[in-house]
Automatic annotation (TrEMBL), chain A:
Pfam families: Rieske, Ring_hydroxyl_A. It comes from Thalassobacillus devorans. The keyword Nucleotide-binding does not apply. Coiled coil: none annotated. Residues 39-124 form the Rieske domain. Keywords: 2Fe-2S, Dioxygenase, Iron, Iron-sulfur, Metal-binding, NAD, Oxidoreductase. This is Aromatic-ring-hydroxylating dioxygenase subunit alpha. Gene3D superfamilies: Naphthalene 1,2-dioxygenase Alpha Subunit, Chain A, domain 1, Rieske [2Fe-2S] iron-sulphur domain. One of its GO terms (molecular function) is dioxygenase activity. Belongs to the bacterial ring-hydroxylating dioxygenase alpha subunit family.
From TrEMBL, chain B:
PANTHER family: 3-PHENYLPROPIONATE_CINNAMIC ACID DIOXYGENASE SUBUNIT BETA, BLR3401 PROTEIN. Keywords: Oxidoreductase. Belongs to the bacterial ring-hydroxylating dioxygenase beta subunit family. It comes from Thalassobacillus devorans. Coiled coil: none annotated. InterPro entries: NTF2-like_dom_sf (IPR032710), Rng_hydr_dOase-bsu (IPR000391). The keyword Oxidoreductase applies. Gene3D superfamilies: 3.10.450.50. This is Toluate 1,2-dioxygenase subunit beta.
Length: 425, 162
């Protein structure tokens, strides 16, 4: 078997073979062993709050329909007509009791049940008695604290077991609000001309923070004359199953609840009160973590939850080795005060998203990696060793343990695949 | 101060000047076109009237942030635009309303091409402006960019000023 990942703990060296970013065969293996078997984020409960609410979602390469059915259950239907295959729901979101395929006018209740079609006399009386002509739902759909996931493998372990130690960190984000978090409108649908795993790495990489985002920190320093030196310090942690987190302090404001000088004095007082409330609910130590520490979490394989200057969730999927589609969400407390919400959103947009002062530079870094991988024939390995010399239990946030955790899980899953005949590339 | 009687052509020329400044990367001069309370916004795709508290915009700049945006893009460390991309902006179907009122509103279609590293991306949509006279010159009070795209694919970013 060709070696793809060299994890040499004696030499403190961790190498990733660059073919994993460019090889079509690897993408086929990833689809079979990773995207068809792992829990994948589809959306948040607050995107479909009312019965009949639906939203089209692309997950794991499928065209799905996240729908809040009339029976109260949230389902992920495959958005394809059981008759001849056409996409059934064509609007990206809405509210409806019925979905109707325009091709031959078959219609379905919003739980997927076939409701009727023209020319019934041409079909047997017991047509669809086994439900085979209903719109099919993804069998495994589970959620944690409002985050909904699907799994295309019916034998998969539960979401709860899958998330494991990552739940603690999702909790720290969700606990910012007693009323829960909600997704804002306008999910950002963008792309990067780079391999999907580069974004997984980048999202839990604090090492790149200063060199890549210097212009953002220049602006922070100009806004805060008290900020003499940009401090990005904390810990990196392996959360098992390929999940990882970095938890650290940073010089930006946090809407819950770390004030920053560009915000008003009123907000400062509000932040102090919010912090006191958190102390009452959770005690001093946990309140300090919630309010003053930042967390970038990677949930293997393709969900990132960043609880930083705002809360963003992003999920991504490769349509080819060198191109991924990204969906970027913003999450905020339900019922958040207008002024706070505005401060949060401005904080988000200053750094994050396709129009932010930082995310486009990440995009560029990833694309430059991808572009230069055409040297792979002669220059074969990426180095992800930073911090190994300290021992993984002492990893700093600016080390690369978070990425190694991802890659170690990747290695387990892909090695399993390497024993098999290659899936169709 | 004399208020000069404006014609539609003055307003159109002003917009062409804006486009030219952006294409020539004269971004500080671009920022200087805005009033002290000027804003530059890109609302979510498909939701041009979205509320900035309920929805996530792409850009929601007040005057100081649009200044920061312009100055950031001129730095070598604004990696995504270093070396600068080559851009070409076309404004078409320009509709000017209220040329005699205090606030002139303009709506136009735009096509902005950007090329870098031999990849050409095209942004299309509508610009909506509020334009005022200030010290005998025209100035932008607000600029809203309504993208007529399905998503930011394959563009991936709005790193330049639209």
């Amino acid at each position: 078997m060709e070696e793809l990942i060299r994890d040499n703990r004696e030499k403190n060296e961790f190498l990733v073979h660059r073919s994993v970013f460019t090889d079509k065969e690897m993408l086929a293996r990833e689809r079979a062993e990773i995207f068809n078997k792992c829990w994948l984020f589809i959306g948040h409960e607050t995107e479909v709050p009312e019965k009949g609410d639906y939203k089209r979602k692309k997950v794991g390469g499928r065209n799905l329909l996240l729908v809040h059915s009339q029976d109260g259950e949230i389902r992920a239907l495959y958005n394809t007509c059981p008759h001849r295959g056409a996409l059934v729901a064509r609007e990206s979101e809405g509210n409806s009791r019925v979905f109707r395929c325009f091709y031959h006018a078959w219609s379905f209740k919003n739980d997927g049940q076939l409701n009727g079609m023209p020319g019934k006399d041409g079909f047997p009386d017991d047509f669809n008695c086994d439900g085979e002509k209903d719109m099919k739902a993804v069998n495994r759909l589970e959620s944690y604290r409002g985050f909904i996931f699907v799994n295309f493998d019916d034998q998969a372990i539960s979401l709860d077991d899958y998330l494991g130690d990552a739940k603690e960190y999702i909790d720290l984000a969700a606990d910012q609000s007693e009323a829960g978090l909600e997704v804002l409108g306008g999910v950002q649908e963008y792309s990067v001309r780079a391999n999907w795993k580069l974004l997984a790495e980048n999202s839990v990489d604090l090492y790149h923070g200063m060199p890549t985002h210097k212009t953002y920190f220049d602006i922070k320093q100009a806004q805060d004359p008290g900020l003499k030196r940009v401090k990005l310090e904390g810990r990196g942690k392996d959360l098992g199953n390929g999940h990882a987190v970095m938890e650290y302090v940073a010089p930006w404001g946090r809407p819950v609840a770390q004030w920053t000088p560009i915000w008003s004095e009123d907000l400062k007082q509000d932040m102090e009160r919010m912090k006191e409330k958190l102390v009452e609910r959770f005690g001093e130590e946990r309140a300090d973590r919630i309010a003053n520490y930042n967390r970038n979490i990677i949930i293997f394989p393709n969900l990132v939850i960043n609880d930083i200057m705002a809360i963003t969730a992003r999920t991504f999927y490769p349509s080819s080795p060198g191109y991924m589609e990204v969906s970027g969400y913003s999450l905020a407390p339900v019922g958040e005060d207008e002024e706070h919400r505005m401060a949060r959103n401005n904080n988000f947009l200053e750094f994050l998203g396709p129009g932010g002062f930082a995310t486009p530079d990440d995009n560029e870094a990833l694309e430059l990696c991808q572009e230069a991988y055409n040297n792979n024939e002669e220059v074969q390995w990426n180095d992800i060793s930073k911090g190994m010399v300290r021992g993984e239990e002492n990893a700093m946030a600016t080390d690369e343990l978070q990425m190694r955790s991802f890659w170690r899980q990747y290695k387990v899953r892909i090695e399993e695949s390497m024993k098999k005949e290659v899936a169709q590339p | 101060m004399t208020v000069v009687a404006l014609t539609r052509q003055n307003v159109v020329d002003f917009l062409y000047k804006e486009a030219k400044l952006l294409d020539e990367w004269k971004l500080k001069e671009w920022a200087a076109l805005f009033t002290d309370d000027g804003t530059y916004k890109v609302p979510p795709i498909g939701k041009p009237e979205a509320s900035p508290t309920e929805s996530l915009f792409y850009v929601h700049d007040n005057r100081s942030r649009l200044q920061e945006r312009a100055e950031r893009l001129l730095k070598k460390e604004a990696h995504v635009e270093y070396p600068h991309s080559t851009t070409l902006r076309n404004y078409h179907n320009i509709l000017v309303s209220g040329v005699e009122s205090d606030v002139i509103t303009v709506e136009c279609n735009f096509t902005t091409h950007r090329t870098k590293r031999e990849v050409l991306d095209t942004f299309v949509g509508k610009h909506k402006y509020e334009i005022v006279q200030q010290n005998g010159e025209l100035a932008i009070k607000s600029k809203k960019v309504i993208l007529h795209l399905d998503s930011l694919r394959p563009h991936g970013k709005i790193s330049l000023i639209l």
